[in-house]
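Write out the 3D structure for:
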Amino acid sequence: MEKTRKHMKILLASPRGFCAGVDRAIQIVERTLEKHGAPVYVRHEIVHNRFVVEGLRAKGAVFVEELSEIPDDGRPVIFSAHGVPKSVPEEARSREMFFIDATCPLVSKVHREAERHFRDGRDIILIGHAGHPEVVGTMGQLPDGAVQLVETLEDVAGLTPKDSGNLAWCSQTTLSVDDTADIVAALKARFPDIAGPHREDICYATTNRQEAVKTIAPLAQALIVIGAPNSSNSNRLVEVAKAHGCPRALLVQRAGDIDWREFRGLERVALTAGASAPEVLVEEVIDSARAFFDVEVEEIAIKEENVVFQLPRSLRAV
């Protein structure tokens, strides 16, 4: 006789998963494939999610890291949602490439802010993670040396700007709201006249997903974040969960990464997804849990999202 399965309540965070910028970027690739056929080249992963990338690859998208990998065959080229340095579209124009920019509009806003401060003669401090595509793209909007990157409070303490009275700060959109607040406070303490953005650079989706995790983390014995290991916003969700009362938080890409034996004895497990993870992967994890536990799902919603970013005009009607 089959043993009775243990009950597990899955606390499902909302908002979770795809943000408007990711949804727009994926639609740009899909619409370009519909309109122009395969292949369509994409510089860098369109978003940081293997499941999404493989799905687009199966439809005819060819992912490359640099434009030098793309032949001069006249096929469309798409720049990823993370944004690119100005040198990339300049190279594309010099080769007469047909390119479409899928940069998230909120990332583009940071680019314009950085340019505005530079025009006003300010040195720029960028809060972000070295090597992240978004940071590379933002720093690449301006000449070498115009932007200084800070990742930690120690970096702030070590700053030696040319003119401490003429500074401005911007930030990567996918960081932890709390971490950024600490660094901004440290910058303002050191440089009281530093200028900032008109509105906080941390994007609405990053903020909302982190706030949902803050709400749900103290209620759960463990929290699962669905996302890619190179996804900044997904990694931050793990950190936020641990900082707000959840004893264990882990990042997984798919349900197959979870060893449910490690969850025996747990009655309340929270579940969320980073901004690049589709809802189908959330459903996959819940279905996977049902093979081991008597699962009850309770969605905990803190806010409703209704943000939509328009597609480029050339793709609005296929």
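Residues 20-36 form the longest helix (17 residues).
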